[in-house]
Specification:
The chain is an alpha+beta fold and 54 residues long. The protein contains two helices and two strands. Strands 1-2 form a two-stranded antiparallel sheet.
């Protein structure tokens, strides 16, 4: 969480290669904001990496 809880950063980690994507969450870590950011970030991953993301 950022200063004053106004922003947040989420992470997606591919377990095999340890590839990390940072998710910018400017409106904070609400479930809706995280879901939207994860869907957007996941669409940029190659299909073979998407199977083991945590």
């Amino acid at each position: 969480m950022g200063a004053g809880h106004r922003s947040a950063i989420g992470t997606l980690v591919e377990r095999t290669s340890r590839y990390v994507l940072l998710l910018h969450l400017p409106e904070g870590g609400t479930a809706e904001a995280v879901n939207t950011a994860m869907a957007e970030a996941s669409s940029r991953l190659p299909a073979e990496l998407g199977r083991s993301v945590t």
